[in-house]
Amino acid sequence: MRSPRSDNATPLLRELHWLPIVCRVDFKLLVFTYKAMHNDAPVYLCELVCPYQPTRTLRSANNNILQVKRTRTKAGDCSFAIAAA
């Protein structure tokens, strides 16, 4: 992978199968959410993810939808429980 410093980095990143930073953050969040839903994550993350349970029978009940909790602050909007939902 030796290449001159003046070369463009994009082809190298594609060759290494590296994601752009924003996509990598989204990917990691989705992986943590999946693991939390299937109890493969640490307990403190599993407790933050709550499956949505409708009050009546719906066809969408089996879609693995997460319950979105309400927050009052912008900092709360960035929490794992909100970002995962």
Order of helices and strands: HHHHH
Discrete helix count:
5
Our measurement of the CA-to-CA distance between the termini, rounded to an integer number of angstroms, reads: 39 Å
Q: Which regions have little confidence, pLDDT < 50, spanning 5+ residues?
A: none
Structural class assignment: mainly alpha
Architecture overview:
- This protein is an all-alpha fold and 85 residues long.
- The protein has one domain (10-84).
- Helices cover 44% and strands 0% of the residues.
- The protein is built from 5 helices and no strands.
- It has helices at 9-15, 21-37, 43-46, 74-77, 80-84.
- The longest helix has 17 residues, at 21-37.
- The mean pLDDT is 81.
Brief description of this entry?
This protein has 85 residues and is mainly α. It has helices at 9-15, 21-37, 43-46, 74-77, 80-84.
What key attributes describe this structure?
single chain; 85 residues; mainly alpha; 5 helices; elongated
Task: Compile the SSE list and pairings.
Elements: H1 9-15, H2 21-37, H3 43-46, H4 74-77, H5 80-84
